[in-house]
Design brief:
alpha+beta, homodimer, ten-stranded mixed sheet, 10 strands, about 270 residues
Chain lengths: ~270, ~270
């Protein structure tokens, strides 16, 4: 009898491929999001098309750490790309070569690193870090149009902080989960939800190992109800315990959201 | 004999006019600058056209504190507008009415204030504050395209600070003055030139009562020669003392420049 093969990690790179991790920044305004779609430009399609040009036309599949929605931005998105094994590549060639072929789009590769075939941008990630930027002033954004959520009435940051405290830790986040969410479990551990005012901006810094679909935007949209005084901070606990999307507040718009970083141990880019 | 009239301040509002000060933010990317021109959209033309709509089609002339160049941005530009005296106006109507008529453009009126006919956005200003933003990293800007000057090689902020010190105070700034500059004197007093690093950004904060044409961009372009090591900091003094544009460095690109504020005593917006 033959010895059964030990199971490979999910989505291990095939033997004829070399796997590269890339760190990406993009302005999501004119894009349909990360994932390839029929109806518009996606980050994935742009990245894979740039990679195929480096690979002499051969396809180069990618997997991302976070499938951002349409109009969501990133300053530290991470993906991996499986290039043909015979291609002579180095860090600079991957970073600058991809960025060169992306140059007519607001997408840029900040860094690149050769990784083990078992390394996976999605499954190896130990933390995702998002930032949500809200412009809190009477006038609409001029310079920051499409890069912030504009809220006219003054928000109480201290009240939102009190409410945010109640969301930290391990919970069933069904109240803050999009109906289209494909995750098997609604349980997540929220490690950080800091809120600070920076002039007319209110900045939310949110961290967890992983998030449910629309979780950050639903958290921010609900906290904004606390900020404008329609909810008492304690109402957040009631909403969370309802485990029902209808108990939560609205989904904050995508243009305020930024994927700012994905953490790995060890960091492939160090 | 009739008593001679005491001279009016320069550009006093006529008796059939009410003068309003406005504070304006704009993304200069698609604009030809402040001043009305044949060949493209200017902030002045957009603002005056919005004002004319509030005035039932009657022309509303404007004067600005700083005639920014094409692609230069502003977060705190100030201008005054002379509306017909018979128009019923209040702060909110001016601010929100102008912003409403500007809504298809990246120009927004942040504040408005009724001012005395002798108040003048240009001549009453006691200080202009500019910020210059430089992205210092290998990769081109993704999210900040058109909003920063991108410099790939690492700059030495400390060396630039040493050089900047030499520029403070009252000097003949001919070395940093555009040939097209229409000011009668090249003498200016530079009150502030602070340089700080903020992650991948280098931010220059520059203040003076008034500036020569291209002065901030020429100062930054020359300091960048110090930052990259081509010039020793002391060479800035030699350049300044030459009083000759050819002794200075290049003009930094307009997209990194922001007019962040104009000061008046008293502040009409308080």
């Amino acid at each position: 009898m033959s010895t059964p093969l030990s199971p490979l990690p999910r989505d291990h790179a095939p033997a004829d491929r070399q796997r590269w991790a890339v760190k990406i920044e993009y302005d999501g305004t004119g894009l349909v999001g990360w994932q390839k779609q029929e109806n518009g430009l996606s980050v994935q399609a742009l990245l894979e098309s740039a990679a195929a040009r480096l690979a002499g036309g051969r396809p180069v599949p990618s997997i991302t750490a976070g499938r951002t929605d349409a109009r969501v931005h990133a300053t530290g998105q991470v993906a991996h790309l499986d290039f043909p094994a015979d291609l002579p590549l180095n860090t600079r060639a991957v970073r600058d070569g991809l960025s060169y072929h992306l140059k007519s789009h607001p997408v840029v590769v900040l860094d690149a690193a050769s990784v083990d075939p078992s390394w996976n941008a999605r499954f190896s990630a130990i933390r995702r870090r998002y930032r949500y930027r809200l412009l809190n002033r009477p006038s609409r954004p001029g310079i920051e149009a499409n890069r912030v959520w504009h809220v006219r009435f003054p928000l109480d940051v201290q009240a939102m902080r009190v409410a945010a405290e109640l969301l930290l830790g391990h919970h069933d986040f069904s109240t803050f989960r999009a109906s289209a969410c494909q995750a098997r479990s609604p349980m997540r551990t929220l490690d950080r939800l800091d809120i600070k005012r920076d002039g007319e901006l209110i900045v939310f810094d949110v961290e967890a190992r992983s998030f449910l679909h629309h979780q950050v935007r639903n958290l921010v949209g609900t906290l904004q109800l606390v900020g404008c005084g329609r909810w008492q901070p304690e109402q957040i606990r009631v909403a969370l315990e309802a485990k029902d999307r209808r108990a939560g507040g609205p989904t904050a718009p995508s243009e305020g959201l930024y994927l700012v970083g994905v953490d790995y141990e060890p960091d492939p880019f160090r």
